[in-house]
């Protein structure tokens, strides 16, 4: 099957209106891309992570008449801050297969593998701890440095028999990793109900029972403390949530935070330093992970 794509350059304020217009015109898919190479990270729970300037692309069958859609976009060009839009024909290629081929099993730390359902972990990885996770709508597949930093940290921790809190669980990848690495109970929380649904579904696909990973909204978190707390969100919320996250940590409990750009590390560290000892900052590309141990 041959395809055509409509490419529209706009701003984040108008992404909903434009994507809705593309969908109403019968788009087989609508995708978002960064227009100016602006970094983006795992979002604050409940937020859609988009760049300030973005490219929205709608994919349509080649024979589809998109004249009405083009006129509609032209009519709203100024009110929707559309810098430009264009229609392109795509050569006949196996797009789905090419997309799938881009995703390979990924190793984090010494033994933690994340792999999609259409691939296998290398047979040589005899001590592998495997997480089955297909790319989807919920964020967190291991591709982003912030997720990788958290997965590598979990792989290096002794989680056997521990109680773990994943604050801002997204796809559930960190909660699943903790459970697979031996945690007795993992509580995964997120402001977005869809993230909780994704976590439940991904846990089920990884043969984890409902009592192994408990999901809830932040306001429904049980009043207890945890051996390990991990949060991969944004630096601003990490600073705001410092008293909350620290209140969930047992004395001598372990804390790991990510979603922190290099120039934000000092600010985040300052919000936690009074309660932590043995703190350490680890960098991957332009992102940081802050870890430490709660004071007794």
From TrEMBL:
Keyword Cytoplasm: yes
Keyword Cytoplasm attached: yes
Keywords attached to this entry: Cytoplasm, Methyltransferase, Ribonucleoprotein, Ribosomal protein, S-adenosyl-L-methionine, Transferase
GO biological process: methylation
Enzymatic reactions: L-lysyl-[protein] + 3 S-adenosyl-L-methionine = N(6),N(6),N(6)-trimethyl-L-lysyl-[protein] + 3 S-adenosyl-L-homocysteine + 3 H(+)
InterPro entries: Ribosomal_L11_MeTrfase_PrmA, Ribosomal_PrmA_MeTrfase, SAM-dependent_MTases_sf
One GO MF term: protein-lysine N-methyltransferase activity
Pfam families per record: PrmA
Example of a GO cellular component annotation carried by this entry: ribosome
CDD domains xrefs: AdoMet_MTases (cd02440)
The EC number(s) this enzyme carries: 2.1.1.-
Binding site for S-adenosyl-L-methionine: 147, 168, 190, 232
Main subcellular localisation: cytoplasm
Cellular compartment(s): Cytoplasm
Function of the protein: Methylates ribosomal protein L11.
Similarity comment text for this entry: Belongs to the methyltransferase superfamily. PrmA family.
Listed name of the protein: Ribosomal protein L11 methyltransferase
């Amino acid at each position: 099957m041959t395809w055509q794509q409509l490419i529209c350059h706009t701003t984040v304020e108008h992404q909903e209106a434009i994507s809705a217009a593309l969908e109403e015109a019968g788009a087989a898919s609508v995708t978002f891309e960064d227009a100016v190479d602006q970094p983006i990270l795992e979002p604050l729970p409940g937020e859609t992570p988009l760049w300030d300037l973005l490219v929205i692309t709608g994919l349509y069958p080649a024979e589809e008449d998109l004249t009405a859609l083009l006129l509609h976009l032209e009519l709203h060009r100024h009110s929707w801050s559309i810098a430009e839009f264009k229609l392109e024909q795509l050569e006949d290629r196996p797009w789905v297969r090419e997309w799938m081929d881009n995703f390979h099993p990924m190793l984090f730390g010494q033994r933690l593998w994340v792999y999609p359902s259409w691939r296998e972990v290398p047979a040589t990885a005899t001590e592998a701890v495997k997480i089955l996770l297909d790319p989807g709508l919920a964020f967190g597949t291991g591709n982003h440095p912030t997720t990788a930093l958290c997965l590598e940290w979990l792989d290096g921790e002794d989680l056997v028999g521990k109680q773990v809190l994943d604050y801002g669980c997204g796809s559930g990848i960190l909660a699943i990793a903790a459970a697979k690495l031996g945690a007795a109970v993992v509580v995964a929380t997120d402001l977005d109900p869809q993230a909780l649904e994704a976590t439940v579904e991904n846990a089920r696909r990884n043969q984890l029972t409902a009592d192994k990973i408990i999901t809830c909204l932040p306001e429904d978190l049980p009043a207890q403390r945890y051996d390990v707390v991990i949060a991969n969100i944004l630096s601003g919320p990490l600073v705001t949530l410092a008293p909350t996250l620290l209140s969930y940590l047992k004395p001598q409990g372990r804390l790991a935070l990510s979603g922190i750009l290099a120039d934000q590390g000092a600010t985040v560290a300052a919000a936690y330093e009074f309660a932590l000892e043995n703190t350490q900052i680890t960098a991957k590309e332009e992102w940081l992970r802050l870890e430490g141990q709660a004071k007794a």
